[in-house]
Amino acid sequence: ISLQELMQSKFGANRTAITEFILLGLVETPELWPVVFVVFLFAYLVTVGGNLSILAAILVEPKLHTPMYFFLGNLSVLDVGCITVTVPSMLARLLFHKHTVPYGACRTQLFFFHLLVGVDCFLLTAMAYDRFLAICRPLTYSTQMNQTVQKILVAVSWALAFTNALTHTVAIATLNFCGPNVINHFYCDLPQLFQLSCSSTQLNELLLFAVGFIMAGTPLALIISSYAHVAAAVLRIRSAEGRKKTFSTCGSHLTVVAIFYGSGIFNYMRLGSAKLSDKDKGVGVFNTVINPMLNPIIYSLRNPDVQGALWRVLKGRRSLA
């Protein structure tokens, strides 16, 4: 008998309003829990260390005090937040062999996860707009993307993401949960909670699609539009070296956008499926662990300025040690 079946038989008979959920985690085999714990602890430390190193490099290197790196620094903070919302609680459950999570804690995790992912979504759009202005409007770039504009874009991103996260958190509170209460995942999210609800989730799913179109569809359209103009401007550059140098500043951002939206669309556009499979856990790992871990690597891999700043930060630490 699997852990899921055992939990269902224990809690499934109780049809009263439930006060906690049971998160099965990534694997149901207890023998594999130590391996999962070590792998995800390592991934967490690498992600936090990598993103904070990028942030430190941006702060200490005057050459990186530009709008693009201002947004990248904010993105690094968000990546640390995204992985912190999900992984430490999963590690604690593995360490103490406790799979239950209170209903209130589940909703709190849901709120902060959608808040941070939402800000991420809008920041990627702001970064695309920044590249559009830098390449297509170079003469007015410094005035159109001044510090005030940068701060406004970040503040608006937080405000819109907060509204989105609060909307979903309040909407989930209108659903009844009377059992079963077993979530085949390692964190609380909307698709898994919809499947456990005793009441109709049709309005909630409609809300997710509608708000998702505004929150993800509109930014994606703006990103595509920005890069269409960028591509047209780059193609007008006569020298191949000039084209390569100009577009290289966009390559990292496009890679991050593709990974972010690809995994996000797969995760939330499958709500109609009868049963959420282990594939959804894989997508969850991609959203919460791999994306934040890859971002520092992607942005520093082909960027000599970031690499040089990171080296000076590390060298400075060594000299202090």
From TrEMBL:
Subcellular localization is given as: Cell membrane
Recorded GO cellular component terms are: plasma membrane
Is Plastid found in the keyword set?
no
Source organism superkingdom: Eukaryota
Q: Where are the transmembrane segments?
A: 32-59, 71-91, 111-132, 152-175, 206-235, 247-269
Q: What is its main location?
A: membrane
* Residue ranges of domain G-protein coupled receptors family 1 profile in the record: 50-299
Instruction: State any single GO MF term.
Output: olfactory receptor activity
**PROSITE patterns (UniProt xref):** G_PROTEIN_RECEP_F1_1 (PS00237), G_PROTEIN_RECEP_F1_2 (PS50262)
SUPFAM superfamilies per the UniProt record, alphabetical: Family A G protein-coupled receptor-like
- State a single Pfam family of this protein: 7tm_4
Please provide the record's keywords in A-Z order.
Cell membrane, G-protein coupled receptor, Glycoprotein, Membrane, Olfaction, Receptor, Sensory transduction, Transducer, Transmembrane, Transmembrane helix
InterPro entries from the UniProt entry: GPCR_Rhodpsn, GPCR_Rhodpsn_7TM, Olfact_rcpt
Tell me the membrane topology, using the record's own terms: Multi-pass membrane protein
Could you confirm whether the keyword Iron-sulfur appears in this record?
no
Family according to the record: Belongs to the G-protein coupled receptor 1 family.
User: Function, please?
Assistant: Putative odorant or sperm cell receptor.
For this entry, the protein name equals: Olfactory receptor
Specify the species.
Ursus americanus (American black bear)
Q: What is the lineage of its organism?
A: Eukaryota, Metazoa, Chordata, Craniata, Vertebrata
